Amino acid sequence: MSWKNTEQRYGNWSIALHWLMLLLIAAVYACIELKGNFPKGSEPRELLKQWHFMLGLGVFALVWLRLLARVTAPTPKIVPAIPAWQAIPAKLMHLALYALMIGAPLAGWLILSAAGKPIPFFGLELPPLIEKNPELAGQIKELHELAGTAGYWLIGLHAIAALFHHYISRDNTLIRMLPKRS
Q1: What value does the mean pLDDT take over residues 87-97?
Q2: For residue 182, what pLDDT is reported?
Q3: pTM
Q4: Which CATH number applies to 12-177: 1.10.3470, 2.160.10, 1.10.575, 1.20.950?
Q5: Which of 6, 40, 61, 104 is surrounded by the most beta carbons within 10 Å?
Q6: How far apart are CA 53 and CA 42, in angstroms?
Q7: Structural domain spans, the chain
Q8: Residue 1 pLDDT more than 80?
C-alpha cells in the first residue's frame, strides 16, 4: 500500500494520522474524565490535568499535518457514490471535526495563558498566547467545555455514519480508512 492517497483508498499516511488522532482524542477525554475521581490538589489529579493539556496540544499539532495531507492528496472516491443529500452533511461533519481539533486545544492554550499558568508540552513550556486575565480564562473555559461536550456527539455521529455506510449503504466509506489487510 502506498503512503499517498489514491483515487481508491487513503494512503498509509492519512490512515495512520486518522487513527492516531482518534487515540489521542480518546486519551484527552479519558484524562479529563478520570481527573474527577481524585481529590483537588492530589498528585494523580494534577498529573491527569497535565496529560490532558499535553495530549490536547498534540492533537492541535497533528491536525495541521492532517489538513496538509488532505489538501495535497486526492480524496478517494466513495463506491458506490453517495446520494447528493448525504454529501453536504458529510462535508459539514468533517468541517466540525476539524474545528473541534483546532478550536478545543487552542481554547485550552488560551485558558492556561489567561489563567497565568504554565503551558506544558512534553518537556517544553509553550509561551502564553494572551496576557493574564482570570475572568477571560473562565469565559473561555465555558466554551472549551461546550466544545468538549459537542465533541462527544460529533465523534459518535462520525462513527455511526461510518458504520451506516459499511453495513447499510454497503459502500467503501469505512474500508477506505482502514489499514489494508495482507
Answers
A1: 96
A2: 63
A3: 0.93
A4: 1.20.950
A5: 104
A6: 17
A7: 12-177
A8: no
